[in-house]
Amino acid sequence: MSITRKIVLSLAANRVVRSIASKYGLKLGAGRFIAGVTLEEAIKRTKELNEQNLWVTLDHLGESITSKQEASEATRIAIDTYAAISQAGLIKTNVSVKLTQLGLDIDSSFCLENMRKITAKANETNNFLRIDMEDTPRIDVTMEIFQSLLSEFGSAVIGIVIQSYLYRSKADVEKLGKQGVNLRIVKGAYKEPKEVAFPAKKDVDDQFIALVKQHLSNGAYTAIATHDENMIHPLLAWIKENNIADHLYEFQMLYGIRSDLARKLVAEGYKVRVYTPFGKEWYPYFTRRLAERPANALFILKNLFKK
């Protein structure tokens, strides 16, 4: 992990910094990365993105909750999100969730039941649900819950995320590829020890490209989540050389980051999905975006000194 990233994550954990950011952050520039606090705001922004021929994944922010009441409320919001998507006719929009928001750290069986309710709603509305991957101590139980839901609902309804900075990811992709799982491949944004994750960016990038190729070679749907043109262009060349069908992949980018590149790819005929977060508990997500890219922090600092 870079020194800059360590500093940002440490500073972000400071109670005083968190208090100030939570109170003023959206006004000072964090709103660039968050589609709104309410579901209504998120749906409005989603319509605008869909009209630009951008696909969307909505994510109601929140993680590491500590009560079943909070987890049940998060479950209700996820279900309501599918209902709002369906009512608005947003056929280019799906949903992603984090299991810690749905009770994973309280009781994995309780979390599975919450996930079953959400997945059933996705199925009922002819939609799709993505499970976001979290830090290493939670990966195995996340995989167990995913496999239970996959066997019940199938890969057309539920998919998962794989992080390229982890040593284990190659083996995970090999297994999931044989099952035809719809994967979102990302670099990873959590603070992980060198015992489980590549410390060097080049190794993370190299494995990212290798995992995308591996999954596509298995004929499985692959969401390529990166803003890095130095990775996108070589992958596009490989996709063309290997006659990979267009319906097997899409590019994914985070809301508020490299919108210019997203529009460019759409103009060239590629499918691009914008990962679009919303909700009151936006701070942990926001700090990871700052840690990943110092330019994001500079954007916020500039706003601090505006009138």
Automatic annotation (TrEMBL):
Pathway: Amino-acid degradation; L-proline degradation into L-glutamate; L-glutamate from L-proline: step 1/2. It holds the Pfam family Pro_dh. FAD binds at M133, Q163, K187, G188, A189, K201, T226, H227. Substrate binds at K98, R288, R289. Residues 42-299 form the Proline dehydrogenase domain. Binds 1 FAD per subunit. Keywords: FAD, Flavoprotein, Nucleotide-binding, Oxidoreductase, Proline metabolism. GO terms for molecular function: nucleotide binding; proline dehydrogenase activity. InterPro entries: FAD-linked_oxidoreductase-like (IPR029041), PRODH_bac_arc (IPR008219), Proline_DH_dom (IPR002872), Proline_oxidase (IPR015659). It catalyses: L-proline + a quinone = (S)-1-pyrroline-5-carboxylate + a quinol + H(+). Its EC number is 1.5.5.2. It comes from the Bacteria. It is an enzyme of class 1 (oxidoreductase). GO terms for biological process: L-proline catabolic process to L-glutamate. Its cofactor is FAD. SUPFAM superfamilies: FAD-linked oxidoreductase. PANTHER family: PROLINE DEHYDROGENASE 1, MITOCHONDRIAL (PTHR13914:SF0), PROLINE OXIDASE (PTHR13914). This is proline dehydrogenase. The lineage of its organism: Bacteria, Bacillati, Bacillota, Bacilli, Bacillales.
